[in-house]
Design the sequence.
């Protein structure tokens, strides 16, 4: 990788692409439950259905540094689990095993079969598996087929043979499936085209054949067993059960028809029902077989989204009936538990529950040439399925905008296709599930919940502390105020804790009260004139800090009595916070007391009986600690510190020595940070409260994460655990009390959406409004939405008009903003092009005819700049049309598709001639090109980073940064004559742009934005990809950081084996060598490595694994 310290970017994928290739279901974990694996081109996601809640739980997502082509599951006889077969651009057939306890896939085999890359002769475009798990057939688009024999060795381990070839020249393979033939020789069926007779002829329709390939296990040889002509529109094969479950054979799906072909020559077909009065051809795009105890059926989906139930009847006929209508899918999966997973093409993935099994009076046919046309009526609501869960998908993102406000940074994305089109808003943070919100009698300071007895399963009291008073509420079927709890209600409570077996301790400024069964058992008072200012407690311990700088420590005896330690610890500075850590399993007490002092230090004291209140370690901070919380995460003890200056600090506490290490920080806001421990999904999580509410947690692989919580800024929060709400959180803000849960710690973005009329073209922002231009073959719309995604105005264009692009322009001459829309207009048999102008409320003003299509519209110096073919046109608004002010022809480009501007400088992106820099000369009223790229690039999006630098993306998935040289920039601003007379270089501009960065993201970039997700964070580049990718490019500013991450990336590429055997450097440099971009996705997998491999890589860098993890954490939290 080329590395230049002048600029270096760190690439992170924030939201992985969601365009699925296909999905499969199996018993991958080795347990009785089924898991669903969904494959996109660069990731594998494992979902586990929760049959109790009807939800799909994301248990594992693995990023692949390669391009997945196909996946299939298989289970060999006698094995306790399913395995996953994967083909990719690595040229390997990969056999993966799911290791859920360790949260990873293990590669059992990576069998090379072809050179890397994706070619039509490369097997692996499709995978077909023998139902008994004995063989896999990998087929190429043309000619090649490889068959692998699967078996077990003496130790019951999976084995795979060398591939057996079944190649046929000039044969195209459309679809492949493994047939159910029991334990006879494995048999595969394919749809093929033999183009040898048509190679030099123009043919509109090729003949297709259903061809059978048999693996002879005795001879270890693959033979073409049989071939028969089938409909030339055939596109999909579905396996039919054999043996005791069915007649075996295959279903062939073709235009308007589904046919059955048996292995003994049986033939029967049936027409696919159509909507009444709709004569359009119908194709089946996906289908699934479901076997039950004594029967089986198919659910297939047409290209219109309609589901049909198909059955093979005992009398040899075939039956079909309308089932329901859902969005188009790439795969359908039916689970034994009565659920169906729809892996949709363009909208969110859907999880349905079967309520009925469909129409009891289906259409039937016993002929192979049915003539009866079947019709049905589509139902508006689902009849046989019930939608129980969705998994958000952004595919495809046509345009996006980054919008920052005082509360949260949001990404507005125009996503979807036709009926599934949506305007989506992505907020970087975790959503909450609000259960209760109620008013309080005053502004509360803190809130706690407590049990009455240690053995209680749920909390019994909700204690709310106000200034000088305390309110106690019962937790049960109803919430009622309690006055006989024994707590001092006329005091401001500092802390509440269930202690011992049956008691409660209340700490207030004037004492510590011990309560049992609602009665005050004892009360401890500080010396006269001295107040308690802070406290911390566990079930067996209480520590309080006094206003005279003394620490008092109590322990609870077997009779629930508070016993004060004989000596008090006097500090030389004021105590501002205390924390006793979690009590580890098998211990009676927490061994440490962490003390925060106003001299900006924390001290770790021992509370072991042999060394009570002895100082063990000290750590200096950048500000006074406002709050301290010691808790266990992933089996390690951490001290969480909230500082007065709004910085959150986390440091590791050694449980043997009490020493502090591995300190990490993040700026949360300008308010002092308050901390509290809560539980989410059974794991400890820290709430950090400042300007926003933050959640601190560790992922399954040990990565440290801080996410904002999408809720009003809380003043305090605490665990809430009741019969109706386990693992809940109770919080206070202003005069409100709220009870909520956090259901998802996995996804970084919370997505809300609003329906669009049809496919979006581009997205515009004006103040607090969002305007979306939409276009389809049927109609075009412009819609305006407010901040809450409510539709404000919808404007439909004329039936013969189609939107190309749009922009919001503030015209200086009118001192008003307008929506300017490029449209094509069909007039009789010709197409004309116009620029329509609307006011900001979408009222039509006028239309201006132009010579060619305009693919880019931007504001430029109070006017509108339009790219028309290879012309740049500057126009102003008039009363009846737009008025031309300047027109420049750019000889070196062919079709301008993107325009960016700053000052007098304009950057254009061409459909195939990359990027050109131009300067506008007002005295000449002309745009002069002065620098362009040396490489042809098919531009999809560009964004100016500064006056001389542009970032862009092309249609092959490449990101690049180009920069004008200092000489070119200086000449362009000062010397117009030189630009006109200077000789052109390579038929282009006088100067060439410097290529600063290159990187491959395996998605087509559709937009770039500059901004930050965090308060005070560094500006970064946010990009979106067509297939649903959201990514970030973080600039590395110091040479030491650049060198560190470059060396770490190099070590990761050397020592970390890729799951599918693809070389990371080749993948990221698919079309051009990687230059000045660090693969942050690869770097972040460091936390998933084994301890030995972490140590090996860290030693290469002269660092410890903790130091490496800290650096990885710091670069992410700079702006995210």
Sequence:
């Amino acid at each position: 990788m080329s590395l230049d310290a002048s600029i270096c970017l760190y690439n992170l994928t924030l939201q992985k692409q969601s365009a699925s290739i296909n999905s499969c279901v199996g018993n991958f974990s080795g347990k009785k439950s089924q898991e669903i694996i969904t494959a996109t081109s660069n990731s594998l996601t494992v979902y586990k259905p929760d049959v109790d809640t009807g939800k799909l739980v994301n248990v594992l997502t693995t990023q692949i540094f390669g391009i997945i082509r196909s996946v299939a599951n298989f289970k060999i006889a006698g094995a306790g689990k399913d395995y996953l077969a994967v083909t990719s651009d690595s040229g390997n057939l990969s056999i993966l095993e799911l290791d859920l306890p360790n949260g990873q896939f293990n590669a059992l085999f990576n069998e090379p079969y072809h050179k890397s890359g994706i070619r039509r002769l490369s097997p692996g475009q499709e995978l077909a598996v023998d139902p008994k798990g004995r063989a896999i057939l990998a087929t190429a688009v043309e000619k090649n087929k490889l068959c692998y024999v699967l078996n077990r060795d003496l130790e019951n381990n999976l084995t795979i043979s060398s591939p057996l070839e079944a190649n046929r020249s000039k044969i195209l393979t459309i679809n492949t499936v493994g047939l159910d033939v029991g334990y006879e020789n494995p048999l595969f069926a394919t749809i093929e085209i033999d183009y040898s007779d048509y190679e030099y002829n123009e043919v509109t329709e090729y003949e297709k054949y259903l061809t059978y390939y048999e693996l002879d296990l005795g001879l270890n040889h693959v033979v073409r067993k049989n071939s028969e002509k089938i409909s030339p529109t055939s596109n999909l094969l579905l396996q039919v059960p054999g043996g005791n479950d069915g007649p075996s054979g295959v279903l062939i799906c073709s235009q308007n028809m589904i046919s059955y072909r048996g292995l003994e020559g049986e033939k029967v077909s049936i027409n696919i029902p159509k909507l009444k009065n709709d004569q359009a051809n119908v194709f089946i795009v996906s289908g699934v077989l479901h076997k039950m105890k004594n029967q089986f059926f198919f659910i297939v989906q047409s290209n219109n989204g309609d589901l049909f139930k198909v059955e093979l009847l005992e009398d040899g006929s075939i039956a079909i009936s309308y089932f329901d209508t859902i969005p188009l899918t790439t795969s359908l999966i039916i689970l034994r538990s009565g659920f169906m997973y729809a892996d949709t093409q363009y909208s969110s993935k859907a999880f349905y529950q079967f309520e009925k099994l469909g129409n009891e009076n289906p259409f039937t046919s016993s002929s192979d040439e049915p003539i009866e046309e079947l019709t049905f009526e589509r139902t508006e609501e689902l009849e046989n399925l019930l939608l129980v869960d969705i998994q958000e998908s952004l595919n495809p993102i046509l345009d996006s905008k980054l919008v920052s406000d005082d509360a949260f940074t949001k990404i507005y994305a125009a996503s979807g296709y036709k009926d599934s089109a949506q305007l989506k808003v992505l907020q970087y943070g975790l959503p909450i599930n609000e259960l209760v919100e109620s008013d309080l009698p005053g502004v509360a300071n803190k809130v706690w919940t407590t049990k009455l007895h240690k053995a209680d399963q749920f909390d019994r009291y909700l204690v709310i502390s106000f200034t000088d008073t305390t309110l106690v509420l019962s937790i049960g079927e109803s919430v009622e105020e309690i006055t006989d709890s024994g707590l001092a209600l006329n005091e401001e409570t500092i802390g509440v804790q269930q202690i011992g077996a049956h008691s409660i301790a209340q700490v207030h400024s004037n004492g510590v009260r011990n309560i049992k069964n609602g009665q005050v058992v004892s009360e401890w008072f500080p010396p006269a004139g001295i107040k308690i200012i802070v406290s911390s407690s566990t079930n067996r311990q209480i520590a309080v800090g006094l206003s005279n700088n003394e620490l008092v420590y109590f322990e609870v005896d077997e009779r629930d009595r508070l016993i004060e330690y004989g000596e008090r610890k006097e500090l030389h500075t004021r105590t501002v916070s205390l924390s006793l850590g979690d009590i580890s399993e098998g211990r009676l007490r927490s061994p440490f007391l962490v003390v925060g002092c106003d001299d900006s230090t924390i001290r770790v004291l021992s509370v072991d009986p042999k060394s009570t209140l002895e100082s063990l370690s000290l750590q200096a901070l950048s500000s006074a600690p406002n709050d301290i919380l010691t808790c266990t995460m992933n089996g390690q003890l951490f001290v969480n510190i909230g500082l007065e200056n709004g910085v959150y600090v986390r440091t590791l506490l050694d449980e043997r020595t009490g020493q502090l290490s591995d300190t990490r920080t993040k700026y949360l806001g300008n308010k002092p940070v308050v901390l509290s421990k809560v539980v989410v999904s059974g794991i400890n999580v820290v709430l950090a409260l400042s300007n926003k509410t933050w959640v601190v947690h560790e992922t399954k692989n040990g990565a440290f994460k801080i996410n904002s919580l999408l809720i009003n800024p809380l003043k305090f929060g605490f665990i809430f655990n009741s019969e109706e709400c386990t693992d809940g959180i109770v919080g206070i803000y202003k005069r409100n009390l709220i009870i909520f849960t956090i259901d998802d710690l996995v996804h970084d973005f919370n997505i809300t959406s609003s329906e669009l009329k049809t496919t979006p073209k581009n997205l515009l922002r004006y103040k607090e409004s969002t305007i979306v231009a939409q276009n389809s073959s049927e109609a075009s719309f412009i819609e305006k939405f407010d901040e809450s995604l409510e539709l404000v105005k919808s404007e439909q264009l004329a039936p013969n008009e189609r939107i190309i692009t749009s922009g919001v322009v503030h015209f200086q001459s009118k001192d008003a903003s307008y929506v300017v829309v490029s449209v094509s207009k069909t007039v009789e048999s010709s197409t004309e092009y116009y620029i329509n102008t609307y006011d900001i409320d979408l009222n039509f003003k006028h239309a201006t005819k132009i010579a060619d299509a305009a693919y880019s519209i931007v504001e430029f110096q109070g006017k509108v700049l339009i790219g028309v073919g290879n012309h740049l046109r500057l126009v102003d608004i008039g009363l009846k049309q737009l008025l031309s002010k300047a027109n420049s022809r750019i000889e070196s480009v062919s079709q301008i598709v993107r325009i960016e501007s700053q000052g007098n400088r304009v950057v254009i992106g061409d459909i195939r001639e990359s990027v050109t820099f131009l300067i506008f000369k007002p005295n000449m009223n002309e745009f002069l090109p002065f620098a362009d790229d040396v490489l042809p690039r098919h531009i999809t999006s560009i964004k100016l980073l500064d006056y001389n630098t542009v970032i862009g993306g092309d249609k092959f998935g490449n990101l690049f940064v180009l920069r004008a040289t200092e000489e070119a920039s200086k000449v362009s601003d000062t010397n117009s004559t030189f630009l006109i007379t200077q000789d052109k270089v390579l038929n282009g501009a006088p100067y060439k742009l410097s290529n600063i960065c290159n990187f491959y993201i395996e998605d087509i970039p559709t937009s770039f934005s500059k901004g930050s997700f965090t308060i005070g964070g560094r500006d970064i580049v946010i990009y979106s990809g067509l297939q649903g990718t959201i990514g970030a490019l973080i600039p590395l500013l110091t040479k030491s950081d650049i060198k560190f991450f470059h060396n770490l990336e190099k070590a990761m590429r050397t020592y970390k084996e890729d799951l599918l055997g693809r070389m990371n450097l080749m993948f990221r440099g698919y079309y051009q060598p990687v230059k000045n971009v660090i693969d942050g996705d690869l770097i972040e997998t460091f936390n998933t490595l084994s301890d030995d491999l972490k140590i090996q890589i860290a030693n290469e860098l002269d660092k410890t694994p903790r130091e490496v993890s800290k650096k990885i954490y710091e670069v992410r939290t700079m702006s995210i």
